[in-house]
Amino acid sequence: MSFIQDTHDTLWNELADIKDELAARDWFPGTSGNLSIKVSDDPLKFLVTASGRDKRKRTPEDFLLVDENSQPLEETSLKPSAETVLHQRIYQKTNAGCSLHVHTLNNNVISELYGDEGTITFRNQELIKAFNIWDEDGSITVPIVKNYADLPRLAEAVAEQIKPGTFGVLIRNHGITVWGRNGFEAKKHLEAFEFLFGYHLQLKQMTK
Ligand SMILES: CSCCC(=O)C(=O)COP(=O)(O)O
Ligand SMILES: [Zn+2]
User: Fold this and answer.
1) CATH number of the structural domain 3-206
2) Where are the domains of the chain?
3) Of all protein residues, whose CA lies closest to atom 4 belonging to ligand 1?
4) How confident is the model over 95-123, as pLDDT tens digits?
5) Where are the membrane-spanning stretches (predicted)?
6) Does the CB atom of residue 59 touch ligand 1 within 6 A?
């Protein structure tokens, strides 16, 4: 097996394992969600989930390789995720090696509650350290963008919000897109965001 094939297969399996873990949490309701992992930087190539599939199932057709224009690099009847362009823009704007998009109840409720404000900020939470923020008064802010039906426009809206220290963007009443330098870090960021959303909503409920 060639080095290139070996790398491709290793990244495929890494993304498939992440998909299984997120599926076990039920973070892919109704075929929603999409995942990608970068295979090469220059030119940009990444594996992305095929569109419209049940992401709880593990099959040999789960991912396909696409280029820097989100176009398939292989002869296939599979379609890349409808939201591939979001992954593409994240790779073009950050040092991300993996990008994860999930629709959960908590991230949707948070996006609606704070959508008019355009951001939500979390403080005084140990889990902020998951973003490599170690200050005692550290905070993490998540921008919230409108859910444009036009996907290149949505991808630009997400890309515009990416500043140093941004690790995820909420799309209002849609879901969250999160990234990290590799699969491990992207999953860590996603888990931390979902914990912060759940904590916030539970506390709000208990103290009203
Ligand atoms: C039924 S979910 C609507 C599309 C979406 O938001 C999503 O995350 C899944 O789209 P894909 O093309 O990646 O399956
Ligand atoms: Zn989506």
Assistant:
1) 3.40.225.10
2) 3-206
3) 32
4) 999 999 999 999 999 999 999 999 999 99
5) none
6) no
